[in-house]
Structures are given as C-alpha cells and as structure tokens.
Design goal:
The chain has 3 helices and no strands. It is mostly helical and 103 residues long. Helix 1 packs antiparallel against helix 2. The mean pLDDT is 85.
C-alpha cells in the first residue's frame, strides 16, 4: 500500500536526522530514545492511515452492496406509488360519502 519511493525518502530523512543529531553533543542514550520515538510514531501513523483507508474502502463496498439495482428500486417505487394512489382514491371516495351525508 505504501510506495517504495515513500519508504526510501523516509529512510533518507531518518538518516539525515541521525547524522544531524550525532553531530551535536547529545548524549547517545537520549539520541537513541528520540530516534526510537520518531520511528515508532511514524510507523503508528502509517499503520493508522492504512487501516483508515481500508475501512473507508470496505464502507464504500458495503454501501454499494446494500443498494438494490436500479431496475429493482424503480419497480419498488412504482409499487409504492400505485399503493399510495389507491389510498388517495379510497380517501377521496370516503370524503365524497361524507359530503353526501352532510348535505
């Protein structure tokens, strides 16, 4: 998932940081601690990005799977419209009956 160019660039950056820190008068143990912390945080960040991207991809796949094909959805909508039209016709006839009883 991570490109080779990204990994080689990251390694080069770590080497530059390593060289810069060694040039300073920093204690060797402190240097190792900072290097380890940097590597660990970078790996955790990369892993988080990878897991997030996979989760988004799976969510899109699940969302597509939940939607019925268009021709089936169109048929369902037509059936709902027909049922509502029948209900409207029934309610109109009930109203006409009520109007007849009132007058």
């Amino acid at each position: 998932f991570v490109s080779d160019k990204f990994l080689t660039t990251t390694i080069k950056c770590f080497k530059k940081i390593n060289a810069a820190l060694r040039e300073t008068s920093m204690d060797n143990d402190l240097f190792r601690m900072f290097t380890a912390a940097t590597v660990i945080l970078s790996l955790v960040t990369i892993a988080g990005i990878i897991f997030w991207a996979r989760d988004r991809k799976q969510a899109r796949i699940r969302q597509k799977a939940e939607l019925p094909p268009l021709h089936i959805r169109k048929k369902q909508l037509d059936e709902e419209i027909l049922a509502l039209e029948k209900k409207i016709d029934f309610l109109k006839s009930e109203r006409k009956k009520m109007d007849g009883e009132i007058s």
